Please model this.
Amino acid sequence: MKTASPGATNMTVGNPYRLILNFSLPLLVGNIFQQLYFIIDCIIVGNVVGDKALAAVGTGFPITFMMSSLFIGIGMGATIIIAQYLGAGNMDQIRETVQTIYTALILGAIPLSLIGIVSSVPLLRLMNVPNDGTMEMAQTFMFVIFAGMIGNLGYNINAGILQGLGDSRTSMLFLIISTIINIILDLLFTATLGWGVFGVAFATIIAEFCSWIFGIYFINKRYPDFHIRLFHFHFNRQIFLKAIKLGIPAGLQQAMFAIGSMVMQALVNSYGSSFMAGFNGANKIDTFAFMPIQSFSNAVTTYVGQNVGASFMDRVKKGTRAGLVLAVGSCLVIGGIVYLLSPNFMRLFSPHQDVIDAGVAYLHDVLPFYFLLALLFILNAVVRGAGATAIPTISTFVSLWIARIPAAYWIASVWGRDAIYYSYAIGWLLGLIISFVYYITGRWKTKSVVSNKGGQPEKTD
Model:
């Protein structure tokens, strides 16, 4: 068995609780700083430019997220492939994976940016964005973000590579640096230069580009075995097909979520700019509360990937239990705190009571059911780490399109706009049932993308 590159974390030995927690904490800090991008943008826009600008920035996010979903999915595929090859001790295939994924990034980023720019206006119209100045600002925000999208895509690819190697600290470091850059530029471009929504978007793409370039430099220095050469194209068709097989379902899952957010946003937008602003502010707080669940699920995916690659299935079971305990426990604590302080948090985004009330209604309807989301994400992380990426996509589709979206529109027609967010819990419950049934069948245990069966003794620590 070949040794791992220096800095890579071996998750096939040691206590699962400690490994998952230690891996998750840097991810959590990194996710906090990543969300600070959006939260600080919204706070500055809402207080410096106005509620309509806040609505415009929030409306643009699901569209940009949808367009970048393919590369987010490929990054997730890279995480699974690299984690399983690391568990199997195959460093050559990790090197091939890194260079192949980067070739796909460089060749695909410009076409994706152009598609995003061209489709922005039609998508905003489909979302019922009001023509009271909100539409014009949303267009400006979208054009700038799509023009500089390569920084965001590159960061996600770097994060996928590093997480597969068991390194969750490096991505955190560069998110902190880029967030500080974003804050400084936000204040310079909006409060000082008066560039409004354009300044917020421009600050974001500069900061994301810096995080991408810093990440490349660090990977090349810390992991010389997997050196990234941006314009030295090397394409391994077999590995790319594996990444697509794993990444397309994950990318579709992200895209479905983004499109579902757009459909939900269209319903919200029909109630006017103040309700939009409240929804968008609360959505940022909701995302902040969700970060521990996301961090634990990412850690579980890497943990399961490495142990499946090493054929240590008993450790996978222990890691699943640890991930469930940690995720549910954290969401109960954090969700309770955010629930109690939701009016205070909403006042960060707007001083207007109608905006605050709309945001509080969102948070009070959603947060009590967060434990369902924690269970769903951890079970999906387990089967995804094993290589069964289709099932999380199916559960997401059913949760979102069969349950949440129809329920939201029905609830709005019967009980009014402030009750539409109970549709989230309905969707999470249905998705959880699907994922749980698949998990207990055990079929995901045969989905590994590497061949290493029986090569190592089972570990029981």
Residues 452-461 have pLDDT under 50 and may be disordered. The radius of gyration is 21 Å. Residues 66 and 93 are 30 Å apart (CA to CA).
